[in-house]
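Per-residue structure
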Amino acid sequence: MSGKPRSDSHGFTLVELVVTMAILVLIAFAVMPSVADWIRSTRVRNAAEAVQNGLQKARTEALRQNKNVTFWLVSLADDRVIDNSCALSGAAASWVVSLATPQGSCASAPSETVAPMIIETHAAGDGGHNVTVVSVDAGGNSASSVTFNGFGQVISPGTGGTAPVAAIDLTSTAGGRRLRIQVSSGGGVRSCDRDVAANDPRTCVAAN
C-alpha cells in the first residue's frame, strides 16, 4: 500500500488542556504555604546571621585593638540606608560597631580618631524585612548595646552605664522560624532555635 504512513499523534484537545491547567493550579495552591514559610524562615535566618556577624566583629575588634568596642542595634528611617536618622533601639536589626555611641551619627565615615569612631555598619535592608527583633539584657529588660573589652569579655554595665545585651530574639511577623542570638558574659556569641527540643544541639541554653 503506497502513501505516507498514518500517524496517531495529535495535539492537546481543549478538555485535556483545561484538566492539565486545573491540576497545575491545585499543585500550586498545595505548595504555596510551604514556599511562604520557607521565605519567612530565610529572612529570619538572614537577619540572625547578620546580627551574629556584627557581634562577632565587635568582639574581634576589641581583641585586636585591645580596646572597648561596642555593638549597637539602631533603628533607621529606611532600613536599607545607614544615615544620621539612626537611634539606639532594642527592636531593630540594623547595627553599628564603634567605640562611642553612634546615635545621630551612623553615617559618619569609619575612623580611629573621630567620634563615634565607627568600625562597621549594617542596614537590615530586605533581608530583615518583616522580621521582629526583641533585644534584652539578662534581666529581660530592653537593651540595645553590648561592649566587649580587650579580653573579648562583656563589660557590665556597658558604655553609657546600661546593662548589656544578653539575648536577641528574631521572629517573622507572619510566623515561621524563631531564632535567638545569645551573648554570654564571657563574650561567647551563638545562634539557637527557640522551637527545637531540649536535647537538640540547636536549642537555646540558660544565660550564663
Remarks:
- The radius of gyration is 25 Å.
- Strands lie at 69-75, 87-88, 94-98, 118-122, 131-136, 145-148, 167-172, 178-183, 189-193.
- The domain at 15-193 is CATH 3.55.40.10 (minor pseudopilin epsh fold).
